[in-house]
Amino acid sequence: MHASLSDIVADVSANSIEAGAALVQVFVIEKNGLIELKVIDNGKGMPPEIVARAFDPFYTEPGKHDARKIGMGLPFVKQTCDACGGTVDLQSTPGVGTTLVCTFQADNIDLPPMGDLVAAVMSLFNFDGDFDLVFTHVKGENEYSISRLELRDAVGGFDSVEGLSLAKEFLRGQEESL
Amino acid sequence: MAKLTLADLRKMRDEKQKAMEMRDSSNKDVQVIVGMGTCGIAAGAKEAFAALVDTLTEKGLTNVLIRQTGCMGLCHSEPTVEVVAPGMPTVIYGHVDAATAKEIVEKHIVGRELIEGKILDKPSIDIVKNA
What we know:
heterodimer; A: alpha+beta; B: alpha+beta; 5-stranded mixed β-sheet; globular
């Protein structure tokens, strides 16, 4: 089980990037006593037989890892949802994309802390490639949204110390404004 | 912390002389690669990644590229960090927490010495090359 919700955000959003998505939309919505995590991508998608086994920890998508037979990402998500009165829904269509929606009861005693969301988003933005990832964080009535490509253009790149440092400062400011 | 706009960021980038080097990756001769698979994330790779960025920023090191990779098959020793630096063997450090990440920057990248007891793997190709 992941130690924080931000670890879950980093993990499941990375799946979308690895699925070759040109656009990944990540929403963290904290409202009305619920925390909703939604990841929508236009990656390669999965056929029904793989979706059916996606939450099985002793299964991983063929070809994803050489000689490895486990896949813990989505099972960790389900474990957390089950532990704290949440729900998880995975919809996918080959060639179209995948949508994962999880909800967590915000006041459940077993809910992991949010953790360092800024570091999670920074690590996602740091992936190689020209994909866009739009991260939106809603907290009550406040929210912000940031596009990876727009931020990359502003800071000059995410693989340099300078770019990551500026991105971190920007994201911290956005988080603190919520 | 003040809320910044993208325009603020562009201005800050332009004002920093060091930041001018960022578009030219030819001066980046050190690579730091963080394992960010499910196993790495579960073990604290996100914190190691953030600590690396913070320490590199503190030291003002502009010659380092930070990259990430998925599971390297070393789940037992996550978080893992690979360091590729000229004139030094390529090394994978294991169990890298924030303190070790700081040590990697200070000792390996700045001090150019390997960190005893933290090395998980040293690819044989380096041993062969250096033999």
